[in-house]
Amino acid sequence: MVDLSQYLPILIFLIIALGLSALFVFLPMGVARLTGAHNPDAEKLSEYECGFPAFEDPRSQFDVRFYLVAILFIIFDLEAAFLFPWAVTVFDLGWSAWIGMMIFLGILTVGFVYEWKSGALDWE
Amino acid sequence: MIQTLAFYLFAFLVLASGVFTILARNPVHSVLWLILAFFNAAGLMILVGAEFIAALLVIVYVGAVAVLFLFVVMMLDIDFAELRAGFVKNFPLGIAIALVLLAELILGIGAYRAGALELGVPDGSAAPLMDRSNLENLGTVLYGKYLFLFEAAGIILLVAMVGAIALTHRGRPEGARGHQDIGKQVRRRPGEATEMKKPEIGKGVEL
């Protein structure tokens, strides 16, 4: 069983953060409701652009290159995640683990070279 | 006591944010609820003692997968009316997938009831693993017994990388700016870059 008592400060921080964020959200709402005029109207929530109604939907389609960058980031993120248990145990496991990780890194480096040379990292 | 309270806090938040992931009308809000669910799942993982899995949830799922989801959601041109229209037609399929997931849950609980997994190797040559952190246990198993599967994971990652590039990367359009050729810049000499002219008086410069 893992000793969870070390996580108690994090839990306390979490509870304080939850309380403060709830306070920051609901306190201004409550104060505004109690002190100000409360006249909700659909027109107040409608889009409004320099005196005109909005011309088009503000959400435009993203370029597919963002997806490419994100998926390449995931792959190298996973590579880094695999390094953590390796770094703790490589001295116990010896050369086989070391060589295995070097082969793994080599495989991904092949991919990295391909990625670099094919221009997937360039952003014009 | 505190652990029980924390468990119910995290479990309630996981369930609530999972429900809101489905119910949110805006897909970007769905992804944000999903991120909250990932964070609380990390809290649950810490409670059961799987600290490395919790760290992975935050690093990989919140840090990378959620960003990927956000980009995909923003990339797709989602029409809400069209999405709603397919609901009745796809309802049996959704029910079928939900049943498959339910069967997997029951199987998982059954497998858990059947007994604990042995972390050591079958012949008992590995040292008892209980007194070490689960990071070390994981490393011992992953880089010892399952080394070849680990290399296979590397090859899968390579395939994913090449596949993503092949699917989405369009070659550079002709005449695109912004590509820096450092070798070309370094090779450049003052003689090629500038040209001295001595125009005669009364005549212009011929370029």
From TrEMBL, chain A:
The chain crosses the membrane at residues 6-27, 66-87, 93-114. It catalyses: a quinone + NADH + 5 H(+)(in) = a quinol + NAD(+) + 4 H(+)(out). It is found in: Cell membrane; Membrane. It is a multi-pass membrane protein. InterPro entries: NAD(P)H_OxRDtase_bac/plastid, NADH_UbQ/plastoQ_OxRdtase_su3, NDAH_ubi_oxred_su3_sf. NDH-1 is composed of 14 different subunits. Subunits NuoA, H, J, K, L, M, N constitute the membrane sector of the complex. PANTHER family: NADH-UBIQUINONE OXIDOREDUCTASE CHAIN 3 (PTHR11058:SF9). NDH-1 shuttles electrons from NADH, via FMN and iron-sulfur (Fe-S) centers, to quinones in the respiratory chain. The immediate electron acceptor for the enzyme in this species is believed to be ubiquinone. Couples the redox reaction to proton translocation (for every two electrons transferred, four hydrogen ions are translocated across the cytoplasmic membrane), and thus conserves the redox energy in a proton gradient. This is NADH-quinone oxidoreductase subunit A.
UniProtKB/TrEMBL annotation, chain B:
Keywords: Cell membrane, Membrane, NAD, Oxidoreductase, Quinone, Transmembrane, Transmembrane helix. NDH-1 shuttles electrons from NADH, via FMN and iron-sulfur (Fe-S) centers, to quinones in the respiratory chain. Couples the redox reaction to proton translocation (for every two electrons transferred, four hydrogen ions are translocated across the cytoplasmic membrane), and thus conserves the redox energy in a proton gradient. Belongs to the complex I subunit 6 family. It is found in: Cell membrane. It catalyses: a quinone + NADH + 5 H(+)(in) = a quinol + NAD(+) + 4 H(+)(out). The lineage of its organism: Bacteria, Pseudomonadati, Pseudomonadota, Alphaproteobacteria, Sphingomonadales. It comes from Pelagerythrobacter marinus. Its EC number is 7.1.1.-. Coiled coil: none annotated. It is an enzyme of class 7 (translocase). The chain crosses the membrane at residues 6-24, 31-50, 56-78, 90-112, 146-167. The keyword Transmembrane applies. It is a multi-pass membrane protein. It holds the Pfam family Oxidored_q3. This is NADH-quinone oxidoreductase subunit J. It comes from the Bacteria. One of its GO terms (molecular function) is oxidoreductase activity. Residues 172-207 are annotated as: Disordered.
